[in-house]
Task: structure prediction
Amino acid sequence: MFNIVLYEPEIPQNTGNIARLCAATKSRLHLIEPMGFFLDDRRLRRAGLDYWPQVSLRRYLDFEDFLAAHPAARLFFLTTKGERWYHDIAFQKGDYLVFGPETRGLPGKILTLAPKHNLRIPMAPGSRSLNLANSAAIVLYEALRRVGFAGLC
Result:
């Protein structure tokens, strides 16, 4: 339905939670290396619980590898530097929601690809950022709402 892209994720528990989110929403999870953990990390597996068999997962060596595999993808980049709110977008099935690593966010080279697709989640002034798994859930569920939660019950 939708695609969650994690660029160089660092914390296995966040990725495990997002994997569970993807399984529950029939969304595909894309992981772009390098990652701060291995896929057999017990913290990753535990956070994903018994949902792993239902996770549609793809891995990429780097961002260029990801772009080459999806040249026509409609990409949205989640960043505290975004000028547009995530809830103002008319999401479509198949969109790619790209999130950066927990400690540093998406790099400038990615954010300059399509500045009008740089989105942010509203927060109180002075707040640095939200948890990665929470951010993914917020934006994914808005995208799902926009398509009428098609295929979900």
Q: What stands out?
A: The longest strand covers residues 3-7. The beta strands are 3-7, 28-32, 56-60, 75-78, 84-85, 96-99, 118-120. The helical segments are 12-25, 42-48, 63-69, 108-111, 132-146.
